[in-house]
Amino acid sequence: MGRLLRLRVLSVGLCCLAALLLAGCGSSRPADAGSRPAASGTADPHLSDFASLEDAYQAVDDAAHCDEFPPEAPTVYLPNGASTGEMRMCTGSVALFWSGSDQERADVRLLLASAGSPEEDKWVYFLDGGNWFLADISECCGFPVGRC
User: Fold this and answer.
1) Residue 133: helix, strand or coil by DSSP?
2) Rounded to 5 degrees, what are φ and ψ at 77?
3) How many whole angstroms separate alpha carbon 109 and alpha carbon 96?
């Protein structure tokens, strides 16, 4: 029960973070109440952009209070060897990804989404910004991050 409550609180926290960071500009949403966020897509040009990963992290930390000592971000390799941008963990299961390239963000987002297991009702949740996104991988404990 404690894990379920923590996941629900984290989901509410991501929604609150979206409101704070995006100031009502929008975020990745399911097409209907029964569907999950899409695994890929393009960023809305009206969403917040940040000049660097550090700037994005500071905004996320100010809004969501990241762990004081979050784990190191995992190394992400794309199958085609393409660049993956920059990643930093906010908590043991919430990663912040930043890149100046729409293609890099889409490729990494798709890779992270594939860590989910719909058959087992395990999902990766995303909060999209202009040149960044947050990925909540708390339901995908096979992902190589500390305190899952």
Assistant:
1) strand
2) -115, 130
3) 11
User: Reduced to 3 states, what is the DSSP secondary structure of residue 122?
Assistant: strand
Tell me the residue type at 58.
Answer: Q
Measured distance CA(67)–CA(134) in Å, rounded? 15
What letter would DSSP give residue 117? B
Q: CA-CA distance, 108 to 72, in Å (whole number)? A: 17
pLDDT tens for residues 56-78? 999 999 999 999 999 998 888 88
Judge contact between 135 and 109, C-beta under 8 A.
yes
Contacts of 135 (CB under 8 A, 6+ apart): 94, 95, 97, 109, 112, 124, 125, 126
> Per-residue pLDDT tens for 112-134?
888 888 888 889 999 999 999 99
What is the distance between the alpha carbons of residues 83 and 29, in angstroms, rounded to a whole number? Answer: 26
Radius of gyration of the CA atoms of the chain, in A:
14
Exposed e or buried b per residue across 123-139, where buried means at least 16 C-beta atoms within 10 angstroms of its C-beta: bbbbbbbbbbbbbbbbb
In order of 7, 23, 37, 91, the CA distances from 33 in angstroms are 18, 22, 10, 27
